[in-house]
């Protein structure tokens, strides 16, 4: 278990009393809170016991083992001490199950992709500003100059085995290497033979959906971006709005979820939202799109597995766009039981230890869009060809980085033009004065 609810993350231990202070300082979501360094912790006057608790809970959250947070923290041991305990001690002292012990002792962090090293993360206390419009792949939100400064951050637990890989530095580990092949700006996992080739997978489109298809889709907001202490869901029923309002001022990643109770969908959402600090730095918001509104399912899904905005696409416009104008569907037998890749995807999600249910419609496949601000268009599209296919985070970060770099280049060009114009006017003015 690993929830993105801040209240569940801090549990009933010594961090609970710090929640108001954390909120005031901008540490208002779990992915960002896990990046606190020694200076950040000293700024909120954390005790050593609270620092140890943050280390333990971050380690457990990475391994989806938060159910042991209160018990491990109550032992008043630091993480290195706990990691040196025997399997028998972990079982007897904390009631840890055998499979969970194996995951706990695996210091390579098997449940999540680590943040790139070294990666410069912006301060949470700065906010981004919107920019003007341009063509697709070129116009992305400009970032506050303070956010874009390289910040040298010191790991809180540099000598701890849980942080062998630092979260500081650059995007080098997520950089697309030479020879990497994108399928244009449409990507999908390859199809594999089913039932010895007797069953053919449904076809997928090769071209990106037209922007005009998605901009007028009617959506309804079901949940806002999660922050500490906010209402669990939108209380009053919000009126429908055009989807283009979602990315009017800021680019967005739209994760189209097949079924929020599906373990593979929950695992994908959890994995993507865990990278929120990176997408914050790139000026990109995270939005989940549902094609079915079951209130109990939304409550189970948000913010435990996803802390971003959740919207309801009643007309299934985004899902039809992924299928080239019609819904991309597959049957349980042909699409899952007889599909080796789908079964492998299920096992991958199952290994993360997430809960699941079978409520709702589960045959309509999802996918993902990256959409630029305003009317700049669709920058990237991923199609769930097999049940449980995930868009590669490497590709998402690469696309968002390229777009941001191009936007920054446009801003520099505009700034240079304005400076040239100013100098030219000033020189004309001084020449005119000298003639007089």
TrEMBL record:
<protein>
    <recommendedName>
        <fullName>Peroxiredoxin-like 2A</fullName>
    </recommendedName>
</protein>
<feature type="region of interest" description="Disordered">
    <location>
        <begin position="113"/>
        <end position="139"/>
    </location>
</feature>
<dbReference type="GO" id="GO:0005737">
    <property type="term" value="C:cytoplasm"/>
</dbReference>
<dbReference type="InterPro" id="IPR032801">
    <property type="entry name" value="PXL2A/B/C"/>
</dbReference>
<keyword id="KW-0963">Cytoplasm</keyword>
<dbReference type="InterPro" id="IPR036249">
    <property type="entry name" value="Thioredoxin-like_sf"/>
</dbReference>
<feature type="compositionally biased region" description="Low complexity">
    <location>
        <begin position="126"/>
        <end position="139"/>
    </location>
</feature>
<keyword id="KW-0676">Redox-active center</keyword>
<dbReference type="Pfam" id="PF13911">
    <property type="entry name" value="AhpC-TSA_2"/>
</dbReference>
<comment type="similarity">
    <text>Belongs to the peroxiredoxin-like PRXL2 family. PRXL2A subfamily.</text>
</comment>
